[in-house]
């Protein structure tokens, strides 16, 4: 059965691009436009992976992450991983990867595949 | 020194102060006049009685008393004069030196109610205007760095969907492309990457300039780091059949940010590969020195002219070369290397002869510098400082100065400490006298905004004259 990925990004172009990439490679995709929307979507579905932008309007991503315990999260951000670490963003156990924007399409697919392998 | 001369001259002129003139007149004219008048009375009255000897004695005592009185008066006046004139002059002199060394917040508090007080007032107005200008300059400077950082971030965000979509096109997400379309797309992708690299480099520079460059110091064996980089870079070198040769000292384990060191080494090796001919070699070496490690990367490529050796660390400067466009690159690599090395108080420079290749050097201190200071990479005041130093060289060393200056600049040895060391070597070899050496150092120190004199002022002033004499004879 196809796995489901929730893509959270406030930029529609990025959301759409990632959605097409994942769908083309056989994943189900749900999208959310910010942290609040993400938490709302999680009330009705349980994706296998969340691709989460860091800098978004609305509820801070730190608070979003704290409310998600049992789903794998991979950040996808222009923020550098060293800065994200400094902010204490990468400490939670379900945070499994960090995609640096601008990302490489084939690299993204390879790593998502790896993350969703049972 | 000029400032001091002018100040004293002005003050000497304004010294004819009404208050003191009046005092002087009273004391120096009226007192002796009174004495002489008394003397006259005594001698007139002594004609009728002829007890001459006694009166001579009395006159003598009176004369001595008058002299003592005058002496005391003169002393008191001297004291007052020095209090109200010399002291403000000294203060003014000190304050001028402060301003010279870049402290614009110095204010004078002279309350003598005369021309000196007025001068002090004018001085205060000038320094407050200067400090205002200085504040504005700092603000503009910060705004520049901030602007660079924000625009780079903003430029980078559209890169994400753009690069993604381009790659998707290329990888056939939206159907197969014919050869011409693929070729066109490759050009777009390549240039998008290049643009992104420039933006990344700009961000790095904005970090260097705002002292936000991050260093993660960890105990590291840099020998291993260099070996790893060499292995990694050999893959790229193989494309031109270039051999990477290493000569690495056993290095102590030191606290250092290995990622930053390898960023610099990779950049240098990358450049070396770019500018090497096929089938040549590149030598990478590390030497342990007293309190730093000296790295070098040597290639046998086209080399650099002396002019280019100096300018190669400037942003966007690429030596004129027919191959330049093939080499690509952002033109910011070496400027960033300089920023990284200098953030750790190290040095980076190049030695080269056209056609013989280049040898790039840089140093890493054995103890890390934790307090990172901002370094101007894009628009540095270096140019201004350098032209001042060049002038000092020419005035002190005559025609030789120019050549020596270029020589030192080529070695990137125009830092204050380097120059002091250089001047010491000149005095040691009796090329210039000790006195001129001291003087030279003082003036170089001043260019770098040094507050204290290298030696005490008195000696300095005496030697200043000596120095000038020697110079004019030249």
Characterization of the model:
The complex is a heterodimer of chains A (118) and B (474). Chain A is of the alpha/beta class. Chain A has one domain: Rossmann fold (3-Layer(aba) Sandwich), CATH 3.40.50.2300. Chain A is built from 5 helices and 5 strands; from the N terminus they run E-H-E-H-E-H-E-H-E-H. Chain A has helices at 12-24, 35-44, 61-66, 81-86, 105-115; strands at 4-8, 28-32, 49-52, 72-77, 95-100. Chain A has a 5-stranded parallel β-sheet with strand order 2-1-3-4-5. In chain A, strand 4 (72-77), helix 4 and strand 5 form a beta-alpha-beta unit. The two termini of chain A are 12 Å apart. The mean pLDDT of chain A is 91. Chain B is of the alpha+beta class. Chain B folds into 4 domains: 2-101; 139-209, Helix Hairpins; 218-365, 2-Layer Sandwich (Heat Shock Protein 90); 382-473, no CATH class. Helices cover 64% and strands 9% of the residues of chain B. Chain B has 15 helices and 7 strands. A 5-stranded mixed β-sheet of chain B has the order 2-4-5-7-6. A two-stranded antiparallel ribbon of chain B has the order 1-3. In chain B, helix 3 runs parallel beside helix 4 and helix 11 packs antiparallel against helix 12 (399-410). The longest helix of chain B is centred in the first third of the chain and has 56 residues, at 115-170. Chain B is elongated and about 140 Å long. Chain A binds chain B through residues 11, 13-14, 16-18, 20-21, 24, 78, 82, 101-106, and chain B through 153, 156-165, 167-168, 171, 173, 196, 214, 216.
